[in-house]
Amino acid sequence: MAEDFRHRANRLIAAMPGDVRGKLEQHLEIVPLIPRTVLAESGSPLRYAYFPHAGVICLMAALRKGGAETATVGPEGFIGFEVLLGSSTASQRVLVQVAGVASRLPIEVLSGLARDSATLRDLLLRYIRYFMIQVLQSVACNGLHSVQERCARWLLMAHDRAGTDSFQLTQEFLAELLGIQRPSVTIVARSLQQAGLIRYSRGLIAITDRAGLERAACECYAMVRDAMNEAQPPVPAN
Residue 234, Cβ neighbours under 10 Å: how many? Predict the structure, then answer.
């Protein structure tokens, strides 16, 4: 029973009606999210759905020369949404960026429950709509805003989901996520640290001035955050 309550650290699970959540929880298991773990490869069969409690999971667009992050998922959402859109394969590489924990269940179980429950299906599709807003805004952001603005936006999104003010993040990984060269990340990280917005040492980033970091970010952060808040369903009393 105690573990059942732990599943509700994910906001989608917490928002499910008791009868729907009860059916889901019969199949859920709690698993760690270990940084740099690949949960699914682009084009590979989906095996599991993940509902994070804390931590950051990134979806990465695969390119011949590396890749770049297209969306970020944390306790507000889930991984494995493709199954609700009629696909049995992952659309992108799914990579753990910040350590945490998640509830996991076989993808065929999620597919069957969503097919049988309009309530569950509508709840998950509501999240998918927000997810698409995030992806589309990311496209515009990558094309129009400076590296420093984009870096600040990404750090804020990670901070929202990590459940802690400090988390492991190497410059190499941040450069990969933003689709830029590492020297550019070094310059930006130094600038943000000198401004007192973050503290960075040995791959550990601490957010030290949240309000200042929001001012340093582009408007995309606030737009995506507001869309996420609007998409969050109310949590039932049961």
Answer: 7
